[in-house]
Design brief:
It contains nine helices and five strands; from the N terminus they run ααβαβαβαβαβααα. The chain has 203 residues and is α/β, with parallel strands linked by helices. This is SIS domain-containing protein.
């Protein structure tokens, strides 16, 4: 492949994903976003589940929640139907990420959540899907196209989901009054840990 082709791939990827993000905020219903934030803020525990790229993004979402002291874990779709949904209790929140909103592996988990009176938040491109229609809050993703030539890899769609997750964390920090002093205590490692130690004199 010629250097020009590499350059084209790089620039087109940035352009495709930037366009998606420029248009993405308008797709999210702010009433639904507010509901999702309040459900997450009030939930004693938070679960998250998705398949493939969505599952990887949900692992990051669970970590984002833990970083602001909202107890959370990723629940593997395979493990969910073999006992892992025992993590969830009435009043907890479960977040599903599914572009089409009808991922077969997630539907049994949805049924369990409804029976256990666990609040459901669905992030999807399809508000008419089963995972959306049975949710307490629906956050709509806007996706222009994926970045590969076949428009089939989970690239732009993963970015769109991650930005929604980042927005949820930012809003939860405001909703719960989470302070960076608490982050300094739970994040002593790495360059950020060193920065926080100096700022708050954590020993």
């Amino acid at each position: 492949m010629e250097k020009e082709a590499y350059t084209r791939c790089l620039k087109e990827t940035f352009a495709i994903e930037a366009e998606c993000l420029r248009e993405g905020a308008a797709a999210v219903d702010m009433d639904e976003f507010e509901k999702a934030v309040k459900l997450l803020a009030e939930a004693p525990k938070i679960g998250a589940s998705g398949c493939g790229h969505s599952g990887i993004a949900c692992r990051d979402f669970a970590h984002l929640m833990c970083c602001i002291e909202r107890p959370a874990r990723f629940i593997s779709p395979a493990e969910a139907v073999h006992g892992a949904t025992g993590f969830l209790e009435e009043g907890d929140a479960m977040l599903f990420l599914s572009r089409g909103g009808k991922t077969g592996e997630l539907l049994p988990i949805l049924d369990i959540c409804k029976k256990k009176k666990v609040h459901v938040i669905t992030v999807t491109e399809n508000p008419q899907s089963p995972l959306a229609q049975n949710a307490d809050a629906v956050l709509k993703m806007h996706i222009t196209r994926e970045t590969d030539r076949y428009n089939s890899q989970g690239t732009t769609s993963t970015t769109a989901a991650m930005v929604i997750f980042h927005a949820l964390q930012a809003a939860l920090i405001e909703e719960t009054g989470f302070r960076n002093e608490s982050f300094a205590l739970i994040h002593p490692g790495g360059a950020m840990g060193e920065k926080l130690k100096k700022e708050f004199e954590v020993h």
